[in-house]
Specification:
- The chain has about 300 residues and is an alpha/beta fold.
- A five-stranded mixed beta sheet has the order 3-2-1-4-7. A five-stranded mixed beta sheet has the order 10-9-8-11-12, sandwiched between helices.
- Helix 1 runs parallel beside helix 2.
- The longest helix is centred in the C-terminal third of the chain and has 21 residues.
């Protein structure tokens, strides 16, 4: 039953953890918790159990790691498709959650969700074009154009662009099981640990990894600026918490741009709540449309 004041279930589904929340329409988060990302059956069961204990909710929004199928007209809507996350390929995620509660469900990538939240309540308010990147367990990019995330044949996979290799980093093959040395394969958290044995923030400040990672991320920013011409590019995620990294990669992006394009790079104004509030934005949209593609 719809409450006099709608309550929304919000899910930020990441490769290492899920963040769950109950929020009101104006963005106030009433309750939240975190659960580890294990196998699909146990993780989704824990999600359903928590919402049943903390509900009711009038709609649920899921901002998920991918790749996913976000097309409501597709028979595979709500599925995580061919992912690098073990055991999750082919998982009916949103459909299972929706059937458990019989409420509208919004479903998109975690980065599209975060980009949507930043465009509504954060750093990209008022921007007609904005891009959000997360650099963590993987690298994903979400783009917002005139208030809506980009979808086409599928959602964007900006982390899987193939970069120019750094001259001091030619031998590392990359960790992406699909593309090897794409950006995700070279500078995601697992790629950094595979190459240098520690996370970037754990390495000494004078370690060459810092310059190499900043160089690649600057190149990523330059690439997306040339393609989409966003007003600003927002970089979040665990790797970006490394002190000085945002400033270093911003300098690299500007150096690569050579005054040919204008690049504005900022951290998320919503901090680590960007993904969860992305779930809220998706839930609100689903509530408005009554979206139940599994019916």
């Amino acid at each position: 039953m719809t409450q006099a004041r709608p309550r929304f279930g919000c899910i930020e589904a990441g490769g290492t953890k899920f963040v769950l929340g109950i929020a009101e329409a104006h963005g106030a988060v009433l309750a939240t918790t975190r659960i580890p990302t294990t196998n699909p059956a146990d993780t989704i069961a824990a999600v359903i159990e928590w919402f049943k204990a903390n509900g009711p909710v009038d709609a649920i929004g899921i901002a998920s790691f991918g790749p996913i199928d976000p097309d409501p007209a597709s028979p595979r809507w709500g599925f995580i498709t061919k992912t690098t996350k073990p055991d999750w390929s082919g998982t009916d995620f949103a459909g299972r959650v929706g059937r458990a509660f019989d409420v509208p469900v919004g479903f998109d990538t975690d980065v599209n969700g975060a980009a949507l939240a930043e465009s509504r309540w954060g750093a990209a308010q008022g921007d007609d074009v904005a891009v959000y990147f997360t650099v963590g367990t993987g690298i994903g990019g979400g783009a917002i154009i005139n208030g809506a995330p980009i979808h086409g044949a599928q959602h964007p996979e900006m982390g899987h662009i193939l970069p120019r290799r750094h001259p001091d980093d030619l031998d590392f093959p990359g960790v992406c099981p699909f593309h090897g040395d794409c950006f995700e394969g070279l500078v995601s958290g697992p790629a950094i640990k595979a190459r240098w044995g520690a996370s970037l923030s754990e390495l000494p400040a004078d370690h060459p990894a810092h310059k190499i990672v900043a160089w690649y991320l600057g190149q990523l920013a330059m690439s997306v600026q040339a393609v989409l011409s966003p007003r600003r590019i927002i970089f979040g995620g665990g790797v970006m918490a490394t002190p000085g990294l945002l400033e270093a990669m911003r300098s690299e992006a500007l150096r690569l741009a050579k005054d040919y394009v204008t690049i504005i790079i900022e951290p998320p104004a919503l901090g680590d709540q960007a993904g969860l509030l992305g779930g809220l934005a998706l839930a609100q949209a689903a509530f408005t449309t009554g979206q139940k593609p599994w019916v």
